[in-house]
Design goal:
Length: about 650
C-alpha cells in the first residue's frame, strides 16, 4: 500500500471519533430534554387531576364555542365583525338531501348571544307570506324548549318573536355569490346552556321544491371561557409557566400565566438575551435537533391545535418565533368517569440551565470536531502533498532520461528547503551535467576534426614538398609553413587549457559589491589604447545606480571576450558601443558592433564550447571558446547572456541581478 493510502486510511479511522462524539452529545442532550419535559408532564398531570374534580362543569363533546366580542357586533348579515373567527366556524352536518353545506359561529357581547350561520347554496329561496316556506333556520335554546323558526321574506334586517316564553330574536339575511348568510342575536345569553340549530335549504329541481336539512344530532352545549376556572388554573400553575384548559375539541375554557422576567422574554417575540439563545439555537441546529416553530398561542387565540391534547400525557419542544429561544409544552387529559372531558396544556420557556447545557454541548462538539478534523486533515494533506511532489520528481526524472540512458531534456527547477527539494535539485543538477557532458562528447570529435584539419594539412603538405625540393629557399619556405602549422596547433591547445583553467577558477574568487557602470567606463578607456583601429563609446549611468555583486577580474575577462569578438567581426574604424542599463531588478550590459548578422541557426549555440561562426581568414585559432567563457562568467554571477540582431549589426547583452539599495 502506498504512503498516501496508508495515511489516508489512518485519517479516515480518526474521523470516526467526531462521529462518536456527535452521538454522545446528542444522547446527553436528549437525556436533558427528556428530564425537563418529564418534569413538565408531571406538573400537567397533577393540574389535570385537580381540575377533574370540576369535570362535571366542562361541556361535552361537540360543544359550540362562544367567542367573546370586544366590540359591538352590528346585526347586518355581513361577516365583517366575524372576520377573526371565520376560520374557526363549526360545520353543521347534513342530515337529509345533498345540497350545499352550512357552518355556525357564536359570540357574546354584553347581554346578547350572537350567531352567524353561513349556507353554501347557489339558490336563495325566500318564504312567502301565508304561503310556501323557503330557506329558513330553526333555533332551539336550551334543552326541551320549542324551536323558533326564522324564515325571511326578503334580504335585510327583521325581528322574530318566539312563542312559549322563548327569547326574542333579531336577525339579518344577506345573499352572496356562493350562498347566503344569516346573523342572529338572542337576549339573555347566560341563560342559554345549549343550542340546537337546523338549517332548511330549499332548492328548485325540475319545477319542484326539494329540501336539504343541516342539523346537529342533538342540542349542543355552549362552551365559554370561564373566569372561575381561569382563577383556579392560575392557583395551580407553578411560577414561570402559562397554561390553558380546553375542551376535547381544543376550545379554550380557561387561561392563566404565572409570569417571570425570563418568561416574558422568551414567550414573546420581542428581544431577550439574544446572544445566549442564538448560541443555543446554533447548537440545536448543529446537532440536528432544531424543533418546529411554536404554534400561535397568543391571548387572542380561542383554540389550541392538537399538539399535546392526546389521550395520554405528552410533551413537545418548540422553537419560538423569530428564533428567540425554546419552550417546552406539556398536556394531560382531564378525566370524567374515566374518559377525557377536556385537557390541561401548560408551557414554560427553556430556562438558563438548558441554555447553559446547550452552550456546553455545542462547545464540546465543536471543539472536539475541530480538533479531530485538524488532526485528520493534517496527515491527509501532508501525505497528498508529499506523494504529489515525489511523483512529479519521478516523472521529471523519467522524462529527462530515456530508456537508452541518453538525456532528452532538463528537469524543472525544484523550490523548497526540505529533503525532497534537495533531492530534486540534486537530480536536476546531475541530469544537466550529464546532458552537457553528453552534448560535449557528441560534438567533440567533429569540432576537433574541424579545427585540427587545417594546421595538420599545412604541416603534411609542407613536409611532402620539403622532401621534393632541393634549393635552400624553397626548403626554408616549406619549413616555415610547417612551423606555422605547429604554432597554430600549440595555440589551440593553449586556448583549450585556458578555458579549462577559467572554468575551474570561477568558483574560487569571492563576489563583492561593485559599481558595474564605473568598471565598464574604466575598461572602455583602456580599449581605446589596446584597439586603436576602432572607436569605442561608453554609455554608463550615474554612480551608484548599477551596483551588482561580482568579481572584478572575472568581469574584466568577460569584457575582454566580448570586445575581442566585437573587434573581430566589425570593420576597421567602426564604432563599438558598451552600454550599462539599470533595469527593474537587474543591470544589463549591452555591447553593440556593426557587421554581419548572426548565423541562421540558434544564436544560443554561439555560447557553447568549440562553436565558432568566424569566416575570416588568417592563421589564428578560433575554437569558439571566448563566448563560452562569457557564458560561464555570467552564470557564475547569476546572470544570463544573449545575442541579438540589430539593423546595423549585432548586440551581445548580459543581464546581471541588481543589488538592493
Amino acid at each position: 500500500m502506498k504512503l498516501r493510502s496508508r495515511l489516508a486510511l489512518v485519517s479516515v479511522l480518526m474521523l470516526c471519533l467526531p462521529l462518536a462524539g456527535w452521538q454522545l452529545v446528542r444522547s446527553l442532550e436528549q437525556a436533558l430534554r427528556d428530564s425537563y419535559q418529564q418534569a413538565l408532564v408531571d406538573t400537567a398531570r397533577s393540574i389535570a387531576s385537580e381540575i377533574s374534580s370540576a369535570a362535571g362543569d366542562l361541556p361535552g363533546d361537540g360543544a359550540v364555542y362562544v367567542h367573546e366580542a370586544g366590540e359591538d357586533i352590528v346585526i347586518d348579515g355581513y361577516t365583517g365583525d366575524w372576520a377573526s373567527w371565520l376560520e374557526e366556524a363549526q360545520a353543521i352536518p347534513a342530515r337529509t338531501g345533498e345540497s350545499g353545506s352550512a357552518d355556525l359561529l357564536a359570540a357574546e357581547q354584553g347581554d346578547r348571544l350572537h350567531l352567524l350561520v353561513r349556507v353554501r347554496d347557489p339558490e336563495l329561496v325566500l318564504s312567502r307570506p301565508g304561503g310556501q316556506s323557503g330557506d329558513r333556520i330553526e333555533i332551539a335554546l336550551g334543552h326541551g324548549n320549542p324551536p323558533v323558526t326564522v324564515a325571511p321574506l326578503a334580504p335585510g334586517w327583521f325581528d322574530v318573536q318566539g312563542d312559549g316564553g322563548t327569547p326574542r330574536l333579531q336577525a339579518a339575511l344577506q345573499p352572496g355569490e356562493r350562498g347566503w348568510t344569516m346573523e342572529l342575536a338572542v337576549e339573555r345569553p347566560r341563560a342559554v346552556a345549549a343550542l340546537d340549530v337546523r338549517v332548511f335549504d330549499v332548492d328548485t329541481r325540475n319545477g319542484k321544491q326539494a329540501d336539504s336539512t343541516h342539523a346537529f344530532p342533538s342540542p349542543r352545549p355552549l362552551a365559554r371561557a370561564s373566569e372561575p376556572l381561569s382563577r383556579r388554573l392560575s392557583a395551580l400553575l407553578p411560577e414561570g409557566t402559562r397554561g390553558w384548559i380546553t375542551t376535547t375539541d381544543g376550545w379554550i375554557l380557561a387561561r392563566a400565566a404565572r409570569e417571570t422576567d425570563e418568561f416574558n422574554a422568551r414567550t414573546e417575540t420581542g428581544p431577550g438575551d439574544d446572544e445566549r439563545w442564538l448560541f443555543a439555537t446554533a447548537a440545536a441546529r448543529l446537532l440536528g435537533i432544531l424543533p418546529d416553530t411554536s404554534p400561535n398561542r397568543s391571548a387572542e387565540s380561542d383554540r389550541l391545535d392538537d399538539g399535546e391534547r392526546q389521550a395520554e400525557p405528552s410533551a413537545n419542544w418548540y422553537q419560538l418565533p423569530a428564533s428567540n429561544g425554546f419552550v417546552v409544552s406539556a398536556g394531560a387529559p382531564v378525566l370524567r368517569d374515566g374518559s377525557p372531558a377536556g385537557h390541561v396544556v401548560i408551557e414554560r420557556p427553556a430556562d438558563r440551565f438548558m441554555a447553559s447545557a446547550y452552550r456546553s454541548l455545542l462547545q464540546l462538539f465543536v471543539f472536539g470536531l475541530a480538533g479531530m478534523l485538524i488532526v485528520a486533515a493534517v496527515p491527509i494533506g501532508f501525505a497528498a502533498w508529499l506523494s504529489a511532489r515525489i511523483r512529479r520528481l519521478r516523472d521529471a526524472a523519467e522524462s529527462s532520461v530515456g530508456a537508452d540512458g541518453r538525456v532528452h531534456g532538463t528537469m524543472p527547477r525544484v523550490h523548497g528547503s526540505d529533503e525532497i527539494a534537495d533531492l530534486g535539485r540534486s537530480l536536476s543538477g546531475m541530469v544537466e551535467r550529464q546532458r552537457q557532458h553528453q552534448d560535449y562528447l557528441q560534438t567533440l570529435a567533429g569540432k576537433l576534426s574541424h579545427e585540427l584539419r587545417t594546421p595538420l594539412a599545412m604541416i603534411r603538405t609542407s613536409l611532402d614538398n620539403l622532401a621534393e625540393v632541393s634549393d635552400e629557399a624553397s626548403r626554408e619556405r616549406y619549413r616555415q609553413r610547417a612551423e606555422a602549422g605547429c604554432r597554430r596547433l600549440q595555440r589551440m591547445f593553449q586556448s583549450m587549457s585556458q578555458a579549462a583553467r577559467i572554468e575551474e577558477s570561477l568558483s574560487e574568487e569571492p563576489l563583492a559589491p561593485l559599481d558595474f557602470g564605473v568598471l565598464v567606463g574604466e575598461y572602455v578607456a583602456g580599449c581605446r589604447q589596446a584597439f586603436p583601429g576602432h572607436r569605442f563609446a561608453a554609455i554608463v549611468p550615474n554612480r551608484g545606480t548599477a551596483r551588482i555583486s561580482g568579481a572584478a577580474e572575472q568581469l574584466a575577462q568577460l569584457l575582454d571576450k566580448l570586445v575581442e569578438n566585437a573587434v573581430a567581426f566589425s570593420p576597421a574604424g567602426s564604432r563599438i558601443t558598451l552600454r550599462v542599463v539599470p533595469q527593474s531588478g537587474g543591470v544589463s550590459l549591452q555591447v553593440d558592433n556593426p557587421g554581419s548578422s548572426l548565423p541562421d541557426d540558434q544564436p544560443e549555440r554561439l555560447f557553447e564550447s568549440m562553436v565558432s561562426s568566424r569566416k575570416s581568414g588568417g592563421d589564428g585559432a578560433h575554437l569558439g571558446l571566448g563566448l563560452h567563457i562569457v557564458r560561464l562568467i555570467a552564470q557564475r554571477h547569476g546572470g544570463r547572456v544573449r545575442a541579438l540582431d540589430r539593423p546595423d549589426g549585432v548586440r551581445f547583452q548580459v543581464d546581471f541581478p541588481r543589488l538592493a539599495d
